[in-house]
Amino acid sequence: MEQDQRILARITEMVADEHRLRQALAAGEIDDVSEQRQLGQLERELDQCWDLLRRRRAKSEFGENPDEAQVRPSSQVEGYRG
């Protein structure tokens, strides 16, 4: 469960980064292109973290080793609907 806590802490950090980016855009500190590029990267990483956390929890629930779950490529995680 310690690893799950680290994943959740990383998710919290990325959400805070997302808010800072939006504030920086509103304050005119960054341009729209920079904000969109950085937000896109954050969103992909967030999707990967949530995916990993869900798969770790599922493994635990079914008596498997959650540490066997690995981060999947964003191309595999993006657009997942299930």
UniProtKB/TrEMBL annotation:
Classification via InterPro entries: Uncharacterised_Rv0898c
Polar residues bias (residue ranges): 72-82
Pfam family, one: DUF2630
Disordered as annotated region, ranges: 61-82
Record's protein name: DUF2630 family protein
Organism: Streptomyces hintoniae
Lineage: Bacteria, Bacillati, Actinomycetota, Actinomycetes, Kitasatosporales
